[in-house]
Amino acid sequence: MGLLAAAVLLAGGACSSGPDVPPPADTLLESKLPDYESWGIHSADELRARLQEGAPGNEDWARTLDDLGDHASALLGWRTVLAARPHDLHAVWHVADQLYALGEYTEALAVLSSAPENGTSSHAHVNRADLDTLECLVLQRYGRSGVDRALCEAGLAGAQTHRAHSAVARLLLRTGDAEGARPHTSWLVDHAAEDATAWFLHGVAEIGLGRVDEAHEAWDTALRLEASHTPAARGLAAELTVPADLIAAEDDYWRAHASLDLAVAGHLYLDLGIFPERVETCFAAADRLEVGPAESQQIWHLSETDRDAAVTRGRAFLQRTRQTDVLLTMGWLARTSGDTAGARALLEEGIALDPRDYQANINLAKVCEDLGDTACVDAAYARALGDPETDDVLLAIGLFVALLVPLAVAYWFVRKRLVRKIAVARAREAP
Q: Per the CB 3.0–4.6 Å rule, which of 135, 199, 270, 329 could disulfide with 431?
């Protein structure tokens, strides 16, 4: 039994094989339907009807598409709203926000700069200060130097919102002013304690002030809330220690997330058998942000009806480009076909390209469990959860103490840095 597996037992874990990863659903649609229960949707037919009944000028329809991850179609919806209400700052904000999500930064800035001076908002939660905050974020992501701090602070002065504080904090952290950023990150964790991004930014401020233990505590919390938050895991493992580098890593993380959102939306449309024109739009927009997620989702969809064709397509892609998302999908297909050794090789190659890819490491851990390789299991979980060297030391000490004192003391000893992280390592084996 490996150290991680043994620690799960010591802490009251259900089994010795590490975190429980449920079996994958046959289709993406099946796995996603529970996410839409809050919309009052419980079946594929209900989701299909909701998406087909909307019209571009309907705000609720545009919000639904945004929640689905189809930022390209949501942009069309909000453009239609803005055309009908050109003085509505609420519509201006949403158009610019969708462009921001799509990585169309120049166009987003053009929309924000064209907002009418005498404009009003049809919704109380969006005002001109929110436009300033969004412009501050777009300029930072766009990579322009010398972002006007006054612009960011004007957004904050006009609206004490989560986004306004995070915009100012990010700007200060990019420029090395961790001391100035910390009051804003403290506000974030005080007012949004369940938000992983708030804790990540707070950790960046703490590391910038040299407060390593406090930074690790913050990143531990971020990973508890969002186990796949790779920038937090990289900070925890001391791969990145400079605030500006950590914020740049977070930029990449959110671009990858937006790409995956678009790719998943395209896959859902394929599963639902609707909107073929939007399928291509979603996949093309995903590729502009990051190549890989769109191809991965298309391979997964194809595997639902023709596994051999999916494998052929995946191999053809990998002959051109070695990319973690596609390697992850191909590894999953190999494992579910009974080729455990092949799955391990594909997943290890993907991890070599992106060592902190959470899902790849979780899937590799499950493959290594199949193979009975506990050292591989421990290493994969440690990479996924961050701070592997410290965790191994704490685990070894915790196990030794467990032999000498009651189990409760051992539980207390290892819980602070490991058990909390293991508990959140719950993810589908499917890509």
A: 329
CA angle 237, 240, 246 (to 5 degrees): 120
Q: How far apart are CA 296 and CA 371, in angstroms?
A: 25
* Token pair recorded at residue 119: 């404009």
Phi and psi torsions of 111, nearest 5°: -65, -45
CA 364 distance to own-chain centroid: 19
C-alpha 22/C-alpha 135 separation (Å) is 41
CB of 422 closer than 8 Å to CB of 18: yes
**DSSP one-letter code for 34:** G
Q: Is 88 helix (H, G, I), strand (E, B) or coil?
A: strand
Structure tokens at 271: 């599963």
For residue 405, give every residue at least 6 positions away whose Cβ sits within 8 Å of its Cβ, in sequence order, or none.
Answer: none
pTM as predicted: 0.81
Task: Report DSSP state, residue 386.
Answer: S
Say how far apart CA 375 and CA 377 lie, in whole Å: 5
Token pair, residue 240, equals 């990145």
Please provide the size of the chain in residues: 431
Task: Please write the tens of the pLDDT for every residue from 139-196.
Answer: 999 876 678 889 899 888 888 899 999 999 999 999 999 999 999 999 999 999 999 9
Question: Which two tokens mark 262?
Answer: 């678009």
324 contacts 357 by C-beta, under 8 angstroms: yes
